[in-house]
Amino acid sequence: MEDLIINRIVKDVSELEGVRGVLISTPDGVPIVKKVEKENAEEIGTICVTLKVTGEELLKSMKLGEFNEAVLECEKYKLLVLPYKDFVIGIIVDKKASLYLIKKGLFPILEESELIEEAE
By residue range, what is the domain housing residue 39? Predict the structure, then answer.
C-alpha cells in the first residue's frame, strides 16, 4: 500500500501549479518514484539526500531543532527538499513560483496520505 501512496503523492504534487518535477528517493539517494527527466533523476535524488543530511547535521551541531526543508535555488529553478517518513521528497519548481503556494498544496496531500495509511 505504501507504493500506492507514494505514487499518488508524486502524481498529485506534479499537478500543482509551478511544479516541473517530483521525485521520492530512498535515504541513499536512489529514486523510487519520479516524474522528472530520466537522465537527471539519480543526480537530483543524490542532491536531495545530500541537502537533507547536511541540513540535519548542521541543525544538530548547532542545537537548532529538527530539519524541515531545504531550498536550492539556481538560475531557472528551485529545488524544494523535504523529509517524508524514511524517504526524501524533491520538488523542482519554476524560479518565479511561490514556495508558499507549493507547500500549501503539498501539505494536504501528505496529510491525506497519512490518513489513508492509518485507516489500513
Answer: 2-119
